[in-house]
Amino acid sequence: MSQKSLSDLNACGKDDFVAALANIFEYSPWIAERAAAGRPFAGVTALFDAMKAAVDDAAPELRIALIKAHPDLANKTHRAAGLTEESNAEQNSVGLDRLSDAEYEAFERVNNSYRAKFGFPYIVCVRRHTRDSILRDFEHRLPNDAATETQKSIEEICRIAALRVDHLVASDDRLKVQGRLSTHVLDTHSGRPAAGIAVELVELSELGVSRLVTRTVTNSDGRTDQPLIGGRPVPIGRYELTFKLGSYFADRGVPTSDPPFLDQIPLRFSVSNPEGHLHVPLLVTPWSYATYRGS
Amino acid sequence: MSQKSLSDLNACGKDDFVAALANIFEYSPWIAERAAAGRPFAGVTALFDAMKAAVDDAAPELRIALIKAHPDLANKTHRAAGLTEESNAEQNSVGLDRLSDAEYEAFERVNNSYRAKFGFPYIVCVRRHTRDSILRDFEHRLPNDAATETQKSIEEICRIAALRVDHLVASDDRLKVQGRLSTHVLDTHSGRPAAGIAVELVELSELGVSRLVTRTVTNSDGRTDQPLIGGRPVPIGRYELTFKLGSYFADRGVPTSDPPFLDQIPLRFSVSNPEGHLHVPLLVTPWSYATYRGS
Amino acid sequence: MSQKSLSDLNACGKDDFVAALANIFEYSPWIAERAAAGRPFAGVTALFDAMKAAVDDAAPELRIALIKAHPDLANKTHRAAGLTEESNAEQNSVGLDRLSDAEYEAFERVNNSYRAKFGFPYIVCVRRHTRDSILRDFEHRLPNDAATETQKSIEEICRIAALRVDHLVASDDRLKVQGRLSTHVLDTHSGRPAAGIAVELVELSELGVSRLVTRTVTNSDGRTDQPLIGGRPVPIGRYELTFKLGSYFADRGVPTSDPPFLDQIPLRFSVSNPEGHLHVPLLVTPWSYATYRGS
Amino acid sequence: MSQKSLSDLNACGKDDFVAALANIFEYSPWIAERAAAGRPFAGVTALFDAMKAAVDDAAPELRIALIKAHPDLANKTHRAAGLTEESNAEQNSVGLDRLSDAEYEAFERVNNSYRAKFGFPYIVCVRRHTRDSILRDFEHRLPNDAATETQKSIEEICRIAALRVDHLVASDDRLKVQGRLSTHVLDTHSGRPAAGIAVELVELSELGVSRLVTRTVTNSDGRTDQPLIGGRPVPIGRYELTFKLGSYFADRGVPTSDPPFLDQIPLRFSVSNPEGHLHVPLLVTPWSYATYRGS
Fold first, then answer.
1. Among C140, C230, D2, D208, which has the minimal tally of Cβ within 10 Å of its Cβ?
2. Residues of C identified as active-site
């Protein structure tokens, strides 16, 4: 999908409007149709609220049909049969196309148990999650009753839709769907930002292999030129952020032990709020370090 | 070898003295013979100094013979042919009997390159090292000239001997051959020592598998009942010390995020001084932590 | 009073026993008399418990008489008329003989308001307090009813007595009446204890002048040879502990700014548990520092 | 002086230009006259550089005359006789009109010793200093020879002029004459910025009284709405920044001791670079805190 401007969506014919937004909600163009009546929208927030209201006001059968229109997670048959372009990109973004055998089996179990209990697929907004947290979330949700899970499914579907709207529609306002993960290395031995430190962010996985998220180097301000994760939700999950001090102190003529007391410093932490700003700084000398959840 | 008291060694006949100390220096009873003249010794330090003086005063050929009396490291033929009981225990202590293929090959290369250049085996006091640091030490030593390496070999042989003497001879004084690695967990959220934290110390390895050194739990003082490593040299090398906070804070009614920001906290550091006391404490809240090389 | 051994007190005649312990409870030898029946005591704890039991079991009039046998705090008339030697030393220890005018007036008000309400003097174990905390304690206690204050007065009297017993009677066991305040300076710039740092402990006062408690220098272990406060209760109150870095880092060739970012580092904290061990360490580089309540 | 735009100064007649800039260099309109030839200036930086070049290129006698045109610091006779409006404001900004007796005497000594040695007044750009650092700077400079001090005086005069230009002339570019002092309070007990903490910044003085610089409260981001010092040089000197935790933790239901271990937290530090950005954050729990020179 190429991006559309909100003003074009406000100005175009109803059919074009519906066509443009048909897959915001998976295979459910009726939502765009109902929202069309609210045009013109003052911003993308108003547009999304109108679509969400259409879902909230829909009859129970229609809401169940919307839920059932979604594919199973990481399901090879579904993938072969054809997901929407959007579903495909979303599932790939979290690595559901590259699962380990153990993960693949775990996802199969999840899909089957959930569908067996509720009669509809297990739906989660995968862009807000890691593979581990999808499986963990499932453990929390399976014991729920059908009413709760119907509601939860709709909420997840709206989260998916919000990200699709944010991606598709250009507007002066933005939906609050993006988070940020940043770092900062302060050399408290010299009282200055630490430049030139290689930094590596890895998503940890219990059943599969850990996955490199990004690799970068601190700039003269001790920060990274781009946030470690930005412009998208920060997936819920466990991470390891490693700072490779290597010869940083030795290069500055600082006496260290041989081998140096500190070389690679791993910080292991979890993300719980995908839309928040999580700042994880490092204060470091050759003999000590500290970190904290900053903001 | 069963332990002997220094007073017995001072009182017994010369033959018994030499027999008791014959293998302090590998297959070289002449050292004990020469030291015997110095009896009675005021302490184990004086005894060891006398043996060391015998080595230092020996003719060059004898010193080379002493060096050549040592086995190659991790050499299967030597092992089959029979190491001294002491060599065997020492090599096993550092895991030289359980090498990965890559490590085994690396040790072969080390032995062969070194022997090819110097005509005698590569000797290092393995109880003061990890597998990685033995290989790293080799890289530093191979470029040396023969005189330097003869001297270095004698120094390592004396370190081996000192540990054997410390193990064998009971005396009021002790040789300074033991180090200590300790930790302490302070919960700065409640201002109290953190009790009940599972702690795991792993020796990191580049070519082989990382090896669990010890697993323990903090006591009511936030310390461990026994040092993580004590009563022996702390092997030079890289380590990861992991603190498993798990439900520590949740159990105390502290609000945390879901999943908790901190769960398992790894501290990665190197040991450079086997005979020193290295203290690696953790100051921790649910949202921050700090460590430093203490004493 | 010169110190007595518990064995002598167990062995001597009853009159000597009572004479020796007559002033453990202010002007109230009847308590020692009643406790005498319990001889021989296995330890000083048993002796003190017997005296405390005598107080607890005494008739209400006798308990009130015990309370009334105590002098007003910092009262010049009482001082002129003669306190027991013990009361005098105790009041001087907390500086009640060197009050500022504002403090003197505050103590007068305290004594008078309290006596007016309850008909007996305001009693507090002054060795466990600073001047500020005595006044603060009074604010908490004045609103109480008579029964509560009778009980509180007895408790304070027993604390006074415990300190007098601890001072007077030598025994293998000790009463738990002593606390400790200690510090430790760790130079995390060099990864070593910081030796030679001048340290000054001052008791802060709101109405009077702040009072120097001790001035010392860190030793090679970064600690002080003696605890900052030890062998006695650590008085409840507010303190400022100042570390004079001065030229510490410059002397070690460490580049600093001019003037240096850190020179004198004050830590301001309160003591709340006089019998506990409070450890207040400093982790410091030329550009950062940290402290925490340790143990 | 009311502010002028650079474009007006570029466009006006030469006499008006000189009149407007006559006192940028104390009583020395010749500097503006010489700089006038360089019009039009692309920015205020170019304007200032032209004036500075006029000073650098001036004959030695003229440079000495410029130096001698400056008043003594804190000199009552000079003040009565009339300083330029600019000098007056500058001297008052650093409190030279409100000196303690000891400070007044110290400044007299400084002026007299310096003038006796060099034959011209002791000049320093007071807006970049505290009273203490002016006196400290003098101790460093008095031993210098005349050539060095002539040069130093010219440098200080140029710093004074730069601040006057920055104040007087509006332009798209700015001279780099301003620094910033900021803080940030992070509550690492809850993992959130600490809002509502009263903060007080005091300039410390050895001879006079310490002087309150600002008093403010942290906002919801744990920062202060305005920098502690901003829009001007941060005067070289010693400061104490006090954070009044008071009931911050108790109000949030956090168990603390009675009295709380931490109440008022003073950070004492020095400023050495008036044009830099000095960030002094506080990481705090009820039982620990840390600070560092940030950026």
1. D2
2. 70
Q: What is the DSSP string of B108-171?
A: HHHHHHHHHHHSS-----GGGB-HHHHHHHHHHHTTS-HHHHHHHHHHHHHHHHHHHHHHHEE-
Task: Give the tokens for residue D291.
Answer: 């600070």
Contacts of B76 (CB under 8 A, 6+ apart): none
Segments of chain A scoring below 50 in pLDDT: none
- CA end-to-end span of chain D: 34
Beta strands in chain D (DSSP E): 4-5, 169-170, 179-182, 185-187, 192-193, 198-203, 211-217, 229-232, 237-244, 264-271, 277-279, 282-285, 288-292
* Among candidate residues A162, A184, A168, the one with its CA nearest the CA of residue A275: A162
Non-local CB neighbours of D173 within 8 Å, separated by 6+ positions: D43, D44, D45
- Nearest Cα of chain A lies from the Cα of D292 at a distance, in angstroms, of 7
| Cα D264 to Cα D267: distance, rounded to the nearest angstrom | 10
Residue range D256-294, pLDDT digits in tens: 899 999 999 999 999 999 999 999 999 999 999 999 999
| CA–CA gap between residue C161 and residue C66 (Å, rounded) | 12
d(CA A157, CA A169) in angstroms, rounded, equals: 18
Residue in C138, C137, C216, C134 with CA at minimum distance from that of residue C181: C216
CB A182 within 8 A of CB A224: yes
Give residues with Cβ within 8 angstroms of B65, minimum separation 6: B28
Neighbours of chain B (3+ CB pairs under 8 A): A, C, D
Q: Helix (H, G, I), strand (E, B), or coil: what is residue B220?
A: coil
* Exposed e or buried b per residue across C232-258, where buried means at least 16 C-beta atoms within 10 angstroms of its C-beta: bbbbbbbbbbbbebeebbeeeebebbe
CA distance C212 to C202: 4
Q: CB contact, 8 Å: C294 with chain D?
A: no
Which of B186, B221, B294 is facing C292, going by the closest CB pair?
B186
Tokens of A168: 């598709």
A136-173 in b/e burial notation, b at 16+ Cβ within 10 A?
bbbeebeeeeeeebbebbbebbbbbbbbbbbbbbebee
**What ipTM was reported for this prediction?**
0.92
| Contact: B295, C188; criterion CB under 8 Å | no
The answer to whether the Cβ–Cβ distance between A288 and B293 falls below 8 Å is yes
Percent of chain A with pLDDT over 70: 97
Give B-chain residues touching A293 at CB under 8 angstroms.
261, 287-288
Q: What whole-number distance in Å separates Cα of residue A291 and Cα of residue A286?
A: 15
pLDDT, residue B78, reads: 61
Whole-prediction pTM value? 0.92
Separation in Å, CA of D170 to nearest CA in chain A: 30
Q: Which of residues 162-221 of C touch A (CB under 8 A)?
A: 188-191
Residues in chain C where the model's pLDDT stays below 50: none
Q: Quote the CA–CA distance of B68 and B157 in Å, as a whole number.
A: 11
- R_g of chain B computed on alpha carbons: 23
How much is the pLDDT for B80? 59
Which one-letter amino acid corresponds to residue D13?
Answer: G
The residues of A assigned a catalytic role are 70
Asked whether the beta carbons of C36 and C18 are under 8 A apart, the reply is yes
Q: From chain B, pick out residues whose CB is under 8 angstroms from the CB of A266.
A: 266, 268
Other C-beta atoms closer than 10 Å to the C-beta of B178 total 17
How does DSSP classify residue C127?
A: G
Asked if the C-beta of B136 comes within 8 angstroms of chain A's C-beta atoms, the answer is yes
Q: Give helix C131-141 / helix C101-118 axis angle, nearest 10°.
A: 30
Query: What's the CA gap between D111 and D120, in Å, rounded?
Result: 9
Q: Which residue of D has its CA nearest to A284?
A: D292
B291 CB within 8 Å of a chain D CB: no
Shortest distance between the Cα of B241 and any Cα of chain C, in A, equals 19
Alpha helices in C58-176, H assignment, sequence order: 60-68, 76-81, 85-93, 101-118, 131-141, 146-168
